[in-house]
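During the second half of the funding period, the structural biology subgroup turned its attention to how the target accommodates small molecules. The most pressing case was adenosine-3'-5'-diphosphate, which had performed well in the primary screen but for which no bound structure existed. We therefore specified the complex as follows and requested a full 3D prediction, including the ligand pose.
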Amino acid sequence: MEGSDLPLTSRSELIEFEGISMVHFFTDNWENIQNFQARPDDILITTYPKAGTTWVSYILDLLYFGNAAPERQTSQPIYIRVPFLEATLPDIPSGVELADKLPTTPRLIKTHLPVQLVPKSFWEQNCRVIYVARNAKDNAVSFFHFDRMNLTAPDPQDWNTYLQRFKDGKTVFGPWYDHVCGYWEKKQTYSNIHYMFFEDMVEDTGREVERLCSFLGLSTPTEERERITKGVHFDTMKLNKMTNYSTVPAMDFKVSPFMRKGKVGDWKNHFTVAQNEQFDEHYKQKMKNTTLQFRTEL
Ligand code: A3P
């Protein structure tokens, strides 16, 4: 097993790595990550952390393998079915090892790497890439609660400190702003990217499943799509041990569950009026050169 099997005694430190903030769990295996050999039919699911990665991973898993392998649905957690490429986390084989051993075609692979750090073989093989983006305010709130409960993450401290770190790009995988814009720009030169929004998924999951099928060239029958849409509802995924991460020892569900709220606009319960005004001002500056638009409420 390549994965780190050291006991978790303390939280990790944020390090500067290849121009972004990282923790060692995502850089320890760097040479193997960068040399990863993608295949033309691999599908890369890529997101800034907490943008809906698990949701889209599960939709894709059901679209491709929901009927083919029922035991896969009941015995393998989603993080094993859809390996997290750059991860070397405690108690789990490394993402590269899991991906290399995937018996499925296509292989569904997850990454949080910003576009400039994605292993080049994915681009060379013209792999299909699914990017999910979530508005900055809800993304920051979700990441804050995740870092509170995820003992492999740096200590988030209090909300105000965390929000400042988020604005400064000092969160794991670097600045949200560069991440969402980087993939948005990549679409100009690389057409095999399907760029999706968490807010659209909440608004109409069925429509987004249909769009995914169309991008992937799948002719999944309507009833099947409807069944999948029901199966990936927040409440269903929250109860499902294979999708709710309750099997991961490094996550403390007493602090906050992985499937927390799944809403658009929860930021309103966290941002003070002053924080919101300052955030909007900063956001305008950071996003002034992009056509990318987000919805912060529905
Ligand atoms: P919240 O913390 O706002 O609840 P990721 O999988 O990228 O880590 O993202 C996790 C976020 O997506 C969490 O957001 C989680 O609740 C939300 N999520 C996961 N599955 C969902 C679903 N089926 N419907 C709505 N939100 C979902």
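Two results from this model are relevant to the next phase. Residues 47, 49-55, 138, 142, 145, 202, 232-234, 237, 259-262, 266 surround adenosine-3'-5'-diphosphate (CB under 6 Å). The domain at 15-286 is CATH 3.40.50.300 (Rossmann fold).
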